[in-house]
Amino acid sequence: MSTNTAAKKADAAPPYPTRIDLAADVRAKLISVLNQHVADTFDLMSQTKYAHWNVKGRDFIGLHKLFDELAELLEGHVDQFAERVTALGGIATGTARQAAASSRVAEFSAGVYKSMDVVAALADRYAALGKTVREAIDETDELGDKDTADLFTEVSRDIDQSLYFLEAHLQG
């Protein structure tokens, strides 16, 4: 079974019972949205670490440290999304291969190492993730799960702040 097939199968129906008072079909939809964001956020985290390792230029040390902090923040959100999946009775599909197969985040371009080029590449990806996270706030709220919508709201604030940190380097 391919990694992508395994991820879709895990989203099909919550395999584990829970006393959370949301219908199984609603939980399945929530799990799908959450697992998509596990993949997207995990992918962006790994790309941020890639930038952390490979950035070059006069701004190296500041960006190196910033990228590490941003990656740590994303790692925490991946964990929150995955744990919400399992709380809803689902399977968190969060291996590196599962994330790579499902992520909607654009691949980080090989050969981009100059400090402001790296910042711009990350800013594009943070903006794209911020957009999909805001969409997930509305989607999960419409499904009647204010807890998951609140989780996405928290993540949205952090993504927007991270984007601000990146864009501030480009505006100077």
UniProtKB/TrEMBL annotation:
<feature type="domain" description="Ferritin/DPS">
    <location>
        <begin position="33"/>
        <end position="171"/>
    </location>
</feature>
<dbReference type="InterPro" id="IPR008331">
    <property type="entry name" value="Ferritin_DPS_dom"/>
</dbReference>
<dbReference type="InterPro" id="IPR012347">
    <property type="entry name" value="Ferritin-like"/>
</dbReference>
<protein>
    <submittedName>
        <fullName>DNA starvation/stationary phase protection protein Dps</fullName>
    </submittedName>
</protein>
<dbReference type="InterPro" id="IPR002177">
    <property type="entry name" value="DPS_DNA-bd"/>
</dbReference>
<comment type="similarity">
    <text>Belongs to the Dps family.</text>
</comment>
<dbReference type="InterPro" id="IPR023188">
    <property type="entry name" value="DPS_DNA-bd_CS"/>
</dbReference>
<dbReference type="InterPro" id="IPR009078">
    <property type="entry name" value="Ferritin-like_SF"/>
</dbReference>
<dbReference type="Pfam" id="PF00210">
    <property type="entry name" value="Ferritin"/>
</dbReference>
